[in-house]
Write a structure and sequence with these properties.
By secondary structure, the chain is an alpha+beta fold. Helices cover 37% and strands 25% of the residues. A hairpin with a 2-residue loop joins strand 6 and strand 7.
Length: 179
């Protein structure tokens, strides 16, 4: 049964394979401002070795700390991976607070499911499992966004109780109760 897990070296090989899947669908370009895109550009050259991957996992786990180094404009966030045994299926990040940009476009929670694991209910289950974590971070209602044309993501949000707020540019914004 899949479960949320802090980033772990246990899924190293599966994680690298998943990132190759994301890259094959065009992720990681300089235009890709997503979590996956950014990390593909910054860290992928280090993932091939156990030590390099362990350093990445350590960095990612420390991003929940207020004083950890992070790019300008980024806030503390808790990253959780959706794993089953040694298989990496997806990721989810809970941003501890909103900046003006996150309020308009990114939201509190972002998630990705690896391409070969999509259409199996993983995104819905990941978001369901993450809502109590967000609640423990004192987020009473999480802002979750999706692209206007991403019907699958919209359904994930709505299945988790998301209440449509509005559309800003190409993003739909929903508030999802966490308690």
């Amino acid at each position: 049964m899949p479960e949320l897990s802090p980033p772990t070296v246990r899924v190293h090989q599966s994680f690298v394979a998943a990132m190759a899947e994301f890259r094959a669908e065009g992720r990681g370009s300089t235009e890709d401002g997503s979590m996956i895109g950014s990390e593909l550009r910054i860290f992928s050259r280090h993932w091939s070795t156990p030590a390099g991957f362990a350093a990445y996992v350590d960095w990612l786990r420390k991003q929940n700390l207020e004083d950890s180094p992070r790019p300008n404009g980024h806030v503390p966030s808790t990253t959780l991976w959706w794993v089953q045994d040694d298989a990496y299926l997806g990721r989810l990040a809970i941003r501890h607070r909103l900046t003006p940009y996150l309020r308009d476009f990114g939201g509190h929670i972002g998630y990705d499911v690896r391409p070969t694991a999509r259409r199996r209910g993983h995104a819905t289950a990941m978001l369901t499992a993450a809502l109590p974590v967000a609640h423990r971070l004192d987020i009473a209602s999480a802002l979750v966004t999706c692209d206007v044309d991403n019907v699958a993501s919209r359904k994930v949000i709505e299945r988790n109780g998301g209440i449509f707020a509005d559309q800003r540019s190409e993003k739909l914004r929903f508030w999802v109760p966490t308690g």
